[in-house]
Amino acid sequence: MDESVERIAREGASAHQRIRVALSAPGRHAVMFAVVLAALVVLAWRSRFVTDDAFISFRYAQRLVEGHGLTWNPGERVEGYTNFLWTLAIAGAMALGFEPVAASWALGLAGFAVSIVATYSIARELLGSRPRALGLVALLGTNYTFSAWATSGLETSWQAALLTLALQNALCRGPGVSADVARNFRLSMLLAAATLMHPDSALPAAVLFVAVAGRRAAADSMRARALTALLVPFAVLMGAWTWWRLGYYGGWLPNTFHAKAAAGITRQGARLAAAFFLTYFAPLLVLVPFAGLRARLPRIDARVWVLIAIVAVWTAYVIAIGGDFMEYRFFVPVLPATFLLLGWVFLSPRCARAASAVFVLVATLASLVQSRRIELMAGFESVRQLDGHLHASQDWDGIGRALAAAFDPADSVTIAVTAAGAVPYYSRLPAVDMHGLTDSWVARHGMIISPRPGHRRLATIQYLRLRRVALVLGSPLQDEDVTLPGRRFRADSLERFRLYPRDRAELGAEARVVEIPVKTGYHVPAVYLTPNPAVERQIREHGWPVYGIE
């Protein structure tokens, strides 16, 4: 703060003086940053969508609010979520009367804004320039992947926000000797919150713990206290959470780990990482010779090494676990660190202006092109495809609501779906997740059908009959209403329901296909596997069409 600003703040200021201060260089940049931030939030809002997987957390939150605990089905304690803190936040919003999709959008946009603010703070110190920092966060905020995942209904935005806040706390210089203990305590709490938001945040947390613990304390007498403040809060919170999980769910790892873990999935992860790199960053390689790195490499700032370590460790992790089938979602938590690295390379004062300009152009065009893509390579779904599951011909939320209108939870109509999100949530019926994310038996013993993350295993027909599943919807898809007297299904053509019987006897003698009305002119077919009085009532009283299986 310059002398004039200090004097005005000390002695009081007239309206004219306050306007002059606001129009000073720091004031102008603050106004410009506020305008850019607002524009980026509006852009993210325009790209809003919600994934089917978000409704898994919504269902756990719903049951918690209703007094059933963090459970999927009555009496079943299965840890089918990996976002403990996010699920609690959604439950809190629902307890206050908010609809979960709208609440998740509001919370997600808030996390997006926090990430932008924290990245700007780091960039100002790393680049030594407010305008360059502003340009960097504009590129980050307009990056299609980062902007689109600001909503989605998942915890992704807040995982990124908490990790970026932790980066800000660790990398930005703090004032005074006494700040070591307070900053380390704050960092420890932020990393604990990020890990509770999603457990894989422990990887960048480990990098930051090593970096901060190895940093020389402001005073040797403070070193022990600073290390205690860094390690103990995280250890206490993680220990308490783990102790609760072991007592409540009975396992060290969430059920989703068993559903997704597989040998040989690194190839899938490598494909995802390569596609992400080619989409956004490959053209930048030709600019590296013009970035003036030769003069900077011998004196790389320690903060840059921290950013490099976080991005490298995270990329290796994504490859090792096979990535995710959703469009580049797993890279969102480290995109702020990635753009900070790119900013250090291409927006440094020592980088040729032409190279900086081309960097901005390439990054902008890459995001624009990605925002227009409808499909990705096989095995991965684009944001548009993910959004389409809940609407149009699939209309999974409409199917769930139709089931809720037809049956009461007390009817004991158990459904089985591979799309275990909106359909179970809106139907409020007992549900078997056929891919096993929320089902412990399927996660460990279901038949292996695909290398696709989260879709590797599938419930067997024997298990569905053991669970007394009444309606098997598989991956629900609506059909137009057309009455076909005498129509029959073949037992070997039930792939749409994700059933693969060896013969007709495996389905059971009473198995049939029933058409459930969803909206005017449309229905969703389901395999009526186990007899149920409530289903029989709908067939009898409302004329649901029923077809035999050959």
| Major sheet description | 8 strands, mixed
Using the CA coordinates, give the radius of gyration.
Answer: 27 Å
Average pLDDT taken over every residue:
88
Range of helix content: 55-70%
Please give the count of helices.
Answer: 25
Count all strands and give the number.
10
Tally of separate domains: 2
Give the overall form: elongated
SSE class: alpha/beta
Taken as a percent bin, the fraction of beta residues is 5-15%
- Spatial gap, N to C terminus: 82 Å
List segments where confidence is low: pLDDT < 50 over at least 5 consecutive residues.
1-10
Give a written overview of the molecule.
The longest helix is centred in the first third of the chain and has 28 residues, at 100-127. The protein folds into two domains: 47-251 and 262-371, no CATH class; 389-549, no CATH class. With 550 residues, the chain is α/β, with parallel strands linked by helices. β3 and β4 (457-458) form a beta hairpin. Strands 1, 2, 5, 6, 7, 8, 9 and 10 form an eight-stranded mixed beta sheet that branches. A two-stranded antiparallel sheet has the order 3-4. The chain has 25 helices and ten strands. The N and C termini lie far apart (82 Å).
